[in-house]
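Q: Got a minute? One more chain.
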Amino acid sequence: MKLFMAGLATETNSFSPLPTGMLSFEEGGIDHGDTTTKPLQYWTAPLHIWRKAAEERGWAVAEGLMAVAQPAGPTVRATYEALRDEILDGLRAAMPVDIVLLALHGAMIADGYDDCEGDLIARCREIAGDRAVIGGLLDPHSHLTEAMLDRASLLVPYKEYPHVDVPDRARDLFRLAAETAQGSIRPVMRDHDCRIVCAMHTPYEPMRGFVDAMSAREGRDGVLSASLIHGFPWGDHPRCGARSLVICDGDAAKAERIAAELAEQLFAIRHGLNRPHPDIDAALDRALASPAGPVVLADVADNAGGGAPGDATFLLDAILKRGIDRAVVGIIWDPMAMRICREAGEGARLNLRLGGKHGPMSGDPLDLDVAVRRLASDLTQRFGELPIPLGHMAWLECGGVDIVVNDLRTQTFHPEAYTGLGIDLAARRLVCVKSSQHFHAGFAPIAAEVIHVATPGSITPDYANIPYRNRAPDYWPKVEDPFA
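A: Always. Here it is, folded:
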């Protein structure tokens, strides 16, 4: 057996003010066939897992491009085509191959391409031929398109939000691809439109029970895989929204029937999916009334992991104006402010203009008198068991509020983003994170309470009123019963 593996991943927010070009991929990471010689990180973990599993079986492995960019606006056409073509050139050079495994996102849109993953998979199929097994590992916040379903042999999305199960799903995809190539299974994929657009947090009911029951179907009665594509609400795509996905062993009718059952079950619990999101003032009132701390506040609309800039000032401004102390806020992406802090050095006190640099959705910049408490470089934060780099970081203090700034755009995944700088979170009453849900795995264990805040920003959680141009308005909560 011979395996070819590669990856191309970013999530496109159609409403983000930030274009995604080659600089974004260079910052996120581009490896030209040598990913597995470098330390494992969140996005590169699947390739490490696949190489190890293949070599344990004595297979030959050819490794292609692995390129990742932080979510933002549509990818520049020339950038997508250059990265795609490098993967395709690598596959041609590796031929003949038995298996092609791709680490993807599933919601990548480029100028001239509304379905980058479908385009890439289809072109891989043209090169590898009909007998090759082509598998794609997907983020559940993706758009499951006909091209992806028609040209891939296997598509396996993560099941959890936050996505703490990436390694497990990578192993699932490898196992299914190996069994398919060896002729022991004949996978058939079917999906079903759930007509739902919203965020679905799997640690909470009713999603927890739904995911557990869905997962329990696997390995029985010919069901090879059962998954849910959540969809990425801020990707303006015709297929945006939740879709069930079932893979059965040679039985298309069964796969179609179970996919429909899962879609019906999800639709039946739809009113329990949207968690309440108080506005900033209501969230702060609730947090300050808590008898214990820290209370974790999620600045959900300024999540870099959803394509927002990560420099919105709305929540920080409210905390400062209310004179709240023992609060920490971050991670604010502001490369220029970070540069100034590095120049000034630890212990400096200076007037600093912070945040609000990327348009109205970032709010106004704040002119603050800050103390530079700590500077650090090359720190990481974990997402599940996988490390994510943080770039240059600064811990600033302003009026009893700790502010964490960096120059490498990322959402806040784990308390390490703060504790690595020396901040004692147990001594704070408010911990404010720029993340929609991925923070939950790391922060919930230390939180007295978790509050998702309906802040202004690029990914405001008002799912009924997202200004789609390409997605039809036939979905809940836009319509109470879109199947009527």
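A: The longest strand covers residues 366-376.
Q: Perfect, thanks.
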